[in-house]
Amino acid sequence: MFDKLEELLEFGGLKKDIIMLVISGVSLIISMVVGESLPVSIAWIAIILCGIPIIIEAFIGLVRDHDITADVLVALALIASVCIGEFFAAGEVAFIMQLGGLLEDLTVNRARASIENLVKLTPRTARILRDGKELIVPAENVIIGDIIRVNPGETIPVDGIIVNGQTSIDQATLTGESLPVDKENGDEVYSGTLNQYGSFEMKATKTDENSSIQRMIKLVQAADASKAKVVRLADRWAVWIVIIAVTAAILTFIFTHQIIRAVTILVVFCPCALVLATPTAIMAAIGNITKYGFLVREGDALERLASVKKIAFDKTGTLTYGKPEVMDVVAFSQKYDEAELICVAGSIESKSEHPLGQAIYRYGKETNVVIEEVSSFKMLPGKGVIGVISQTEYLLGNESLLLGNGIELSQMKKDKASKYIEKGCTITWIGANEECVGFIALADTIRKNAISTINRIKACDVAPILLTGDNENAALETGRKVGISEVQYQCLPEDKMNYIANTISNNEKICMIGDGINDAPALKEATVGIAMGGMGSDIAVDAADIVLVNDEIENLPHLIALSKHMMNIIKMNLTFSMTLNFVAIVLAITGVLNPVVGALVHNAGSVIVIVNSAFLLKWKK
Known about the structure:
Shape: elongated
Structural class: alpha+beta
Low-confidence stretches: 107-119, 223-231
Radius of gyration: 32 Å
Number of strands: 22
């Protein structure tokens, strides 16, 4: 029975609720204008449309869930008002309560598609090599020990080890690393990551259900289920509100023998202003931060954000732009100065699709070097590229590429490069005429407003933390540059989520901000999750409570400060509404207020609460 009643209440959704409120509001206005001149009060429309659902919800809560909510007192006031013929008071109370409920629903976006998007990311087929033939089978049919071929541009179907071939893998989905990772025989590869260049063969070490991407799905599901929802303040205090109101009404009737006074107490004590105190402030705050590029997906996210003491940042794409840039060019040979090296490297890399190669090519164009004709271009996955310019063969890539072509690196050259590696740079060596003639250092670049943003967040009494899947050198260098002292590096998705969970278990509220699929579990687990919407993945966006649409992180301090100010406004609203209710009770006991006037008084209180919340729309610290 209860399930059918709940289905009945939910039928039609938000549009139905809005239509019912509009009709009820019009009926109350007509009722107030025509008074009791009609045989049947027009206010009955509001009582039926707005009041009946409240009575049903109160009944379900009491009988099935043994839970006393604010709806219980409202239901008592409605029934009592109807019994003594105060139809306008009953309709007005029902209307205000349903309006508060609608405002709460409007602040909550329940369309959550993170799990579905992760499932879509999961590879559905695999190329298995059996008996000298290539068979395409569903990924779930792969068994441990199967040999699988992965071609360029394909997603790896299950976890495994490379047994034949070399390549570069985009692991951003799992680790958030900004640059592709070179892989060769014996290296591990993970499901859900993207094979960028070379074709290779791998041996499956995990089945589809135990693969990395499936583990990610389970992490997101677990984090979502464990996150507690904030309960409406009126419902938190409902037991005491009901006890005080009913006791006062009974005692008043016993001592005065006037039922109208008792009913008036129930009417004026209905927590209308209390119900409106929180959602109106939240909606006004949301209206404010929308202008700064934030989209709030969870209605209570701003409440939770106001209490955080730590904010954890992902590195790549959040504090940085997520694109490699040339940091420096170092020449070792007198035949090639820095300008000549860029000319050579930019010309050869103009034919490359690798992110590092594209960064070098862009740098060459920005420095106005002449792009020369390149012949005999070859790309060696996992190593680098080779090209011929003016009959000279040049090699650009990692140390393995140079060693494989008979070019040794002296200790002096390695020491020179190590200074850049310690700063988180990736080195592209340049070889020509059987010697190393120089190198180009590349690194991800810090967002232009990252340093000032971190300083302003600290001024909000919130401690910044860096959680990244990147290597130690890159992570520590980024932390040093932006002013973050606590840095956790080489974090897998579960490492980030576990850090968040441990922080929360120590009674510390923490916010997580990230952009990658690998950040999704941590975004779910955090007290508040904020995703970079512009360059962030769909999974990260769906896992977050708040989305930064334009990726402008300099507005984060405003978001944090606004959430704290919003909570102050909510506390002011609550204090005012409770004070008004107690004053109105005293006036009702003494007979100064009747049900209709009482309803109008606490309706005026609701208006004051709404006006006070509206000041948040244009607030700026």
